[in-house]
Amino acid sequence: MNGANPAALRVVRRTLLWRIHLWAALIASPFVAIACVTGLLYAFTPQIEKAMYGRLDRVVPGAGRLPLDAAVAAARRAAPPGFVLHSVVPAHGPADTVRAAFLPPAAPVGHAGHGAPADASRAPAFLRPNFGVPARATVVYVDPYTAEVTGVLPETERFANWARRLHSSLMQGDGWRWMIELAASWMMVMLLTGVFLWWPGSGQTGLPARGATGRAGWRQWHAFLGVALSILSLAILTTGLTWSRTAGSQIRWMRDAAGQAPPRIPATFASTVPAGGEMMSWEQARQAVVAQAPNVVTQIMPPAGRTGYWRANQLEKTGQPTSSFDLLLDAYSGAPLYRSGWAEQTAFGKATAIGIPFHRGEYGLWNQALLVPFGSGVLFSLVSGWTMFFKRWKRGQPAFPPSIPGAWRYASWWFWPMGAVLMLAMPLLAVTGLPVALAEAVAAWHAGRRASWRIDRATAG
Q: What average pLDDT does the segment 123-136 reach?
């Protein structure tokens, strides 16, 4: 068939891609719609939080700031009884408050092996990555000019955390993150098959025709918006999958196998305890961090034990990926024990450091201005796709294009390698694709039986 009839071969391949495209839409559409709506809400977190938490996050600038120790002492007095100090975010701008995060007493402070040498009999230990204020923390907000506590709020009650949990798991806990991952996996299939259906000689390139109405108009706008947003869609889907559960694990495995793992901090560092010496105060530690770090919002974690060290890094959600850093300082002298920054990141690490904040809309208004048409365009693509689907059904045409016996044998050369890569990278796609493959096999068998029956009848007649 490949060499005998190229036109028929194109029809078979197009029909196959169309069926896969519709299967992907059938599986993913409800979850994609939810992800778009909740994602658009999450993208406007800065404006919403500014309105909700202005009294906590902002103060009227005074004549001069007190030493950071005064704010930390005030935060300790206001913290829930028994809670352990995890980290402090010093005031960065003139109107910023100091934020001190406290963890419940049963929870670890957050540094695996912090301040303790690694056991030589075990595998080398590394510090856990620090991703900002823990969601289980309670944060005390303090005026840096007066050391007055402006409020206390569990981090789980911040709108940003609520919106993130709504977007990633519909408030159902981490066990339900599979829903959004499933949506992203099948939306990737929708995107790729949609582009292939649009591109090779489909006659749909360019803007939709003026005055196009009915199903043809829906189809032209559906194709145009899908392809116009394809690069943005690919970026959003890829960055979203990097922190998903199963696909994220696969992506990290492939990253590490390719030698693109991010720098890891060995948990072997320890501060040198001088005779009769005292650890640096919070203010001294802040000044030592400022001397070694970029001019960004910084999170500082205190030493754990006499040989522990100060740890500092850039706070998330600042939209300044090239200023990210990790810093360990001697608890007594402030001398740097370890430092890594943008230059030490791998190519993969730099790509995700740029892409993930873009996914979250953390670069400011221009970023949000791109995410709004993206989310709206995806929603329109879903609505237009289902509109075309039901219009076909209403006219008595098959809702799905006909299954052609043997169509899978005539797929393009790139079809199977691309499918293998996608299923390896997205395990949920592989698992949920099994019922689809079974349904396709049954449909092809049934189509073959009907074709044989028609041939037999024609021969008998």
A: 78
At 232-245, the pLDDT tens digits run 888 998 988 887 88
Q: Return mean pLDDT, the chain.
A: 83
Q: Is the pTM of this model over 0.85?
A: no
pLDDT at 144: 97
How many CB atoms are located within 10 Å of the residue 2 CB? 9
Asked if residue 118 lies in contact with residue 101, where contact means CB atoms within 8 angstroms, the answer is no
Q: What angle do CA 344, 126, 295 make, to 5 degrees?
A: 45
Least confident of 30-39, 166-175, 181-190, 328-337: 166-175
Q: How many C-beta atoms surround the C-beta of residue 16 within 10 A?
A: 21
The whole-angstrom separation of Cα 116 and Cα 122 is 14
